[in-house]
Amino acid sequence: LAKNEAQYLSEKLLINCRESLLTNIINLRKTARKDFVWENTFIDKLNNDLKTKVMHAQNFSEIMQGAALVYNYLLAEKKESEELINKYKEKLSEWQIAMSSRAEIFLNWNLERFWNLVYSELTVNVPSRTRRFIGQWIEIVLKNIDDIFVNKNEMEKFIYARELEVKGRRSRLRNPDYLAKWSGAAGTGQLDYRWQVVDKIINDIIRGLNK
Q: Which residues form a coiled coil (predicted)?
């Protein structure tokens, strides 16, 4: 971007969404370099409201990643693929370590405030069964966060039941025809809230402003 283009965009952001995370990061004149917004050091310089929102986003992203990994592990077992079974065992082990490293934060996570934040966005409509699934999954994980896989059987049964509820006869875990169409990874990318798109916008504007 040319400097005048970057200035124009920055001014429009200030006028139309002054309190947004995007606007505040640009105001800090800090370029974004990490895979997730919460990995950037500039988070510490944000106001408390935005830091709290980022914390909720990180917690939700990290805890729900486990559900996707368990699901794919179950598919790998159904497919009897040693390579994929080992792949997801390793990923689940990494997830367990990551969860344990932030155990205190998760155990003090105020879910009521999280949901209040979600519903404060007027465009958001979370179906009741989706909210129930999320709440039950979080409860299972937090039950033994330092050794999550003590609850391995409970977790697997829960994910199995969830897929049957959502997909019915199209369930990969139940229908061999749909299992055969599984590519080896279904929804395994960790939720980043389109950060890869946003950080490019941030970097383009900041580079333009610095010209």
A: 71-98
